[in-house]
Amino acid sequence: MSNIMIVDDTAFARAILREIVESLGLEVTVEADSGEEAVKKYGLYKPKLVLMDISMPGMNGISASRKIVEMDMEAKIIICSAVVRRDTVIKAVQAGACDFIAKPLQKERVEWAVRNALG
């Protein structure tokens, strides 16, 4: 079973992502509410996929993605953000994201991105 990490500073967004991921038969192993926590927990749990927000207090999702990719070049990260500007999407991809999902989250889009990332 694929283990997934969800990173978002709002519990509501984490709950929505958890529900979608678990409806695919996948397991959410760990959650984090900040970039710093995401980096620490990635090192401990080595999830197969990370769903990460950008805008969080402290370390943002782009910086956290960079640090995770430095630890594991094979890391699979999907950025989920309400900040949908061309430069933001480019920064996310440059930081190592394999996909970018705009909020508000649409179930079908999240499902497609997760399936695609996990192969």
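the 2nd protein, sequnce then structure:
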Amino acid sequence: MKSISQYLVILFLIFTACTNQKKKDNEPKKPNILFLLADDLGFGELGCYGQEVIQTPELDKLAKNGLRFTDFYAGNAVCSPSRAVLMTGKSSSYNTVRGNSGSFSDDRWMRVALKKDELTLGEMLKSAGYQTAFIGKWHLDDPTDISTWASNRGFDYAVQEQWGSRFGGKQYDEQMHWINGKQDSVYYHINEWECKDDFRTNLAFGYLDKIQKDKPFFLFMSFRAPHGHEYEIGNKEIYSEKGWPAAERLHAAKITLLDKQVGRLLNKLEEMGKLDNTLVVFTSDNGPHREGRGHDPEFFNSNGELKGIKRDLYEGGIRVPMIAFWKGKILPETTTNYISGFQDLMPTFAEIAGINVPAQSNGTSILPLLTGENQKEQDFLNWEFQLDGWSRKMPDGGFRQAARIGKWKGVRYGLSNEIELYNLDTDISETNNVADEHPEMIQKMRNIFETQRADTDGFPYGGVIQNYKAKDKLQ
């Protein structure tokens, strides 16, 4: 027969276990993260950012239910270096990748992959207990080295297309998508889908149907639209009645169909019971393009009042839409003019996941801003960009720098040119260069350009002077 003291011990253990279980059940679960990245979407191409012609009802609704940024910046002015900033949390002047391709000996321009010792968002969140998936355009690899692909950089499930013989690999069919690095995994048949993003969203559904229910997930949707190299889509009817030039109808259709995929994903998460505990972030990798066999960014006023487009470090090339939604955390119908950019997302996601910010990142967590708390102001943001030499002359080296300090924006194209200065509070279109009136601010910009950076292979400081068309010696 047990003594009274033994019964008391048993009751205490039962009480403690029940209390601990109750605490465990009441502990907030780590939120899921759904990151949505458009490809070459301009600042003015969504209804919630002033677009009056192209229809984007799902993203407009997302902005209404969440937080809309007016002064958010891409990592750089083209795909690869911008995504490198996003993936590593390192601003462009410290990043390994500063252009779509780097300059090497014998007039060769080649893709530059992230270094193996550079932590990616996938690797960081996987270490924090997240299920990780990447679907779409990676653009941060060496095509000949599968260890640099998304499937080997922290993503449990990775779907990406591959391309580019001139960058060191054989020419792949862009309709073929590799799953976890395996060739011929799945093929995009254009007439079976409205567009490539429609196809990829279905792949995301397949992934979500198989996730572990008790673990958070990080899903990175790297959409195709409205990049100019998707020259044809399956939906031939949308906007067909408008009488627009074919390139413009295609451009508008891709944006509206992208918007539709965002709605499909959100509905899917709601049906799964996951949306209430999911941070949703939507943005673009750089400004609008002038590509796609005839598309003109002026046709739909793709940049609103901003100057410049893709490949420019004026506002039009790097200021992008940014929408954040998180039920119960982010107040609906809110707007912020807080100045931030891609390098800030890694520290933000780290804080959300409850882990230390990786030492490599020089970004600032904007979690306080998202949740309505006091947010630390940034001293400055800066960019360093190298045009590649394929099919273009570069007498100034194709080297571009920019920085933003509060209301001030400095821009320099080529080391031999003067720094331009603009007051964005009064001149958002960067039409009135006031450099002569503010020598002290010019000196601050110069100091940032010269000291807030590091050298990296393939992207020499000052660029690559080139007065002839580069020859592709890899063909």
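Residues 19-27 have pLDDT under 50 and may be disordered. The chain has ten helices and 18 strands.
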